[in-house]
Structures are given as C-alpha cells and as structure tokens.
Design brief:
By secondary structure, the protein is α+β, with helices and mostly antiparallel strands. The protein is built from two helices and four strands; from the N terminus they run βαββαβ.
C-alpha cells in the first residue's frame, strides 16, 4: 500500500487547487508504477481528505527498499511501503478532519 499524503517535495496541499494538483500528481505516479514498471494495481482509495491510497500486489523486497529510499520525494509515506497489513481508511468511512467519506476510485476485480 502506498499512501500519497503530501505533494512532491514533502508539502501538504493547502488550497483546493493544490489538492487537485496533488491528486493529479499522485495518479500520474500510480499510472507510471502500473504501466511502466508493471506493478499490479489492486485498488485506489481516496481517503476523504488529502490522501490517495494505492494498493498494489507486493513487489520483490529489493524493489520495496528502493521505493522506501525515494518515497518522500514523491510525497509517499515511506513508513507504509511494503506493509499491506497496515490498517488504513476503508471506503465508506468518514474522515475525522473533513467529514467527507472515503471512497474507491478504482478497483481491479479479476486477475489481469
């Protein structure tokens, strides 16, 4: 699971325009991981706040270590990389700060 909670460079989006840019940048990285690196994407969840969570089938350990070392530059929470057991916001849950509901943006329902 990858948690995109900051903009590239480590700053949280503050304005609606920054939030839209953050979502576009996060989706671009997810698309690159899926399309170029052939990571198997399982789901994308919008948390109802400022984060996107991308669920991938776990890649090899050496790939995860490389991602951990570069995660912050991409706005990814390095502490959650490679920990699929970590509880994160589930769809339908209310975000405590925004009051908005988390929801599924994309879900892979069958093997590709």
């Amino acid at each position: 699971m990858l948690d995109f909670d900051e903009m590239a460079g480590g700053r949280k989006p503050e304005t609606p325009a920054e939030l839209r840019q953050h979502v576009r940048e996060s989706l671009a990285i997810i698309r690159w991981l899926r399309g170029t690196l052939d990571w198997q994407l399982a789901a994308i969840i919008h948390t109802g706040g400022k984060s996107l969570h991308a669920w991938f089938h776990t890649p090899r350990p050496e790939v995860l270590q490389t991602l951990r070392s570069t995660a912050n530059a991409f706005g990814i929470d390095a502490g959650l990389v490679g920990h699929p057991e970590h509880p994160c916001r589930l769809p339908g849950q209310t975000h405590s700060k925004t009051g908005k509901s988390s929801h599924v943006l994309w879900l892979q329902t069958a093997d590709r």
